[in-house]
Amino acid sequence: MPSAVTVSFLAFSLLIIQIPAVFLLLSRLLKGIKRTPPITASRATPEQLGAVSVVVPTLNERERLSPCLQGLGRQSYEVREIIIVDSNSSDGTPELVKKTQAKDPRFRLINDDPLPIGWIGRPWALH
Predict the structure, then answer these.
(1) Is residue 120 assigned to a domain?
(2) pLDDT tens for each residue of 26-68
(3) Which domain holds residue 119?
(4) What is the pTM of this model?
């Protein structure tokens, strides 16, 4: 059976070890008091209307692009233009964009130049 001195020493040692953890916990909790609250949504001001342009690079994305175009078409008046940059797709992607463009004038199709040596497709389309 351990002596009272051993038990006291062990309890005191555990207390000393916990003190830095308590200070660390308190410092993190106190930072929360000073934290700024999250930004709340607000209505667009007149100068913000039609201020967003969306650029979508594509290459043979007909199957995946259709839901994307539908979602972009449902965006409100903040979206001024939706630019689809096509890298010479062969699966009918440009035709799908043209069909969507006929319904919504915000859509615009751009065919990019051939890929130069040393470039990767998506960065080149967005360049």
Answers:
(1) yes
(2) 988 888 888 888 888 777 777 767 778 999 988 888 888 999 9
(3) 46-126
(4) 0.57
